Amino acid sequence: MRQRSNRTRADRQRIRRGGAPRPDAARPTGRQLAIAGIVAVLAVVAFIAVSGGGSPLPSSTVAPGVRQTSHVRGLETAPVTIEEWADFQCPACGTFARTTEPQLVATYVARGQVRIVYRHLAFLGPESQWAAEASECADEQGKFWDFHDRLFASQAGENRGTFSKDNLKRIGEALGLGPSFAACVDSGRHAQRVRDETKVGEGKGVRATPTLFVQDRKIEGAATFDQLKAIIDPLVAAR
Description:
Number of strands: 8
Shape: globular
CATH class: Alpha Beta
Structural class: alpha+beta
Strand content: 5-15%
CATH topology: Glutaredoxin
Number of helices: 9
Radius of gyration: 18 Å
Largest sheet: 6 strands, mixed
Helix content: 40-55%
Number of domains: 1
Distance between the termini: 32 Å
């Protein structure tokens, strides 16, 4: 789970899990620069291994026949709504997307009992913002969820180039999105939408990703399927 604080953006980008903002660092040595370069190369290699070089696309988390419209998986008439606030770079969000969400889709969404709504809380740095914007560009061509799944399957560290604009455009190309997608990514036309939605999430008290609202119940962190099942089953039975 990644938590958001009221610190400045510079401080937030220095936060490490369980830690406080670091003091100003000294000028990096040549060895440190070399190590940073190696890390960046490894991140790019990891990205290529996942999303390029002719590798197969990851399995979608959607079951056959499940209705998908823009940011919503499932029927509008579903008695239970799960609203998810997430950041595409957040490791816990990736865990939720790759493990719990497919179980929810197969067990509840496919039966018309639950619908899942995705919301942006892009706060982990520039690549979070760019990835969210690119997902909106994919949405223009009806591919939001395909792009969502691909991003969470491609995570390889935060702000290391994995979700650079060039790599985001490569993901779109792998999904069959045309030149208009690349132009959209470069244009930044969805930037304000992502920023506005992030502010809405903050206004709802979202301070960590992922944060789920199951009806009105707030759950922080990558909830397991069993945890959510214990909440969902009584809600479905009551309808």
